[in-house]
Structure formats: structure tokens, C-alpha cells
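Thanks for the sequence, V.! I ran Response regulator transcription factor right away. Repeating your input here for the record:
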Amino acid sequence: MIRVLVAEDMHIVRGALVALLRLEPDIEVVAEVASGPEILPAARSAAAEVAIIDIDLPGKDGLTAAGELHEQLPGCRTLILTSLGRPGTLRRALDAKVSGFLLKDAPPDKLANAVRGVVAGRRMVDGDLALAAWDSVDCPLTVRELDVLRMTSHGYGTVEVAARLFLSAGTVRNYLTTVVAKLSARNRVDAIRIAKESGWL
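Predicted structure:
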């Protein structure tokens, strides 16, 4: 039996995933969690072999949690299940050393096959998405520029961003001006849209 952990914050979706996996004769769901910080301890205590993780989780995003699992519990494979089918998101997932990346709108049988594939040591990634990621452009923004843009996207003003990142307000404005220029955006809002659609935020 393949021991599986499911990390999904939407109860109906998590229940559907668990019910689907329980139909498989060789898969056992040994843990269910609804937030990022729960993943590592639950995977460890349940001796999970595969963690199916949604990217958009409260407390800690799925890619960060997947990276922690890779470092601290390398025997547990990670399968990202998401509705965010963007090349940039896939690139971030591969950087986090995930074992597989599957879209939520994939046919149900693909999930069980992906679980079996990652346990067998294969990397399971949607083919069309992999090609798109191959062709996509690397993020031109620095880590600091991304930090400033991310906080701006959460609704923080220049002064708040400056205080939280220990910068001056003028420096934050300069970062945002640089970001808009680098992304050939019309303004900050457009820069946020471009970064999100590219999977950089």
C-alpha cells in the first residue's frame, strides 16, 4: 500500500480527493491536513510516502512546504495539485524539487497514476505545461524587488512596505519604478498582474 497525505484547505475538495484515492486498491490515505505548517509533522508521524499538496494553503504555501519535505523528509515524495497552471508556477515547483505537478482539472485516473509514478521515482508533470515552462522567460526581478511587489500586491502602502522590509519609503518607490520598467508594465497594478500570471508571485 502506498501511504498518502492530502494537504488541501477546501474541505469539499479534500474530501473528494480522499474518496477518489480510497477507491484505489494500492493507495491508503494516512493523513489529511488543511494548512501548510501541518504538512511536515503530519507526514512524519504518519510515515507518508507521498504528499499531495495544494499550492495555495493558509499559513505556508504548498511550494515552501514541499521544499521542507524534500530537505527534512526526503523519503516522502511530493505531488503538487493546483489550479494554477502557469509555466512560472511549474518552474517554482521544480525549483522546490517536487516529484510531480498535476492540474486540478486533470482526469481522475491521472491522480492515482501520478501517485504511483512518483513512488516509482519518476517525475510526473503535465506534458503541455512542461513545454510551456521550457519556453517561458526567467523572472527578471531580484528577490528584493519581488518582496516589495508581493507586499504591494497584498495591499500594503509604500510606508508600510518600507517599515516591514526595513527600507526607506524612497527606496521602496525606486524598487517599484524599476519593477514596472523591467516588466514593461503600465503601472504597479499591471506589474502585479504580469508577475502573478507568470507565476513569479
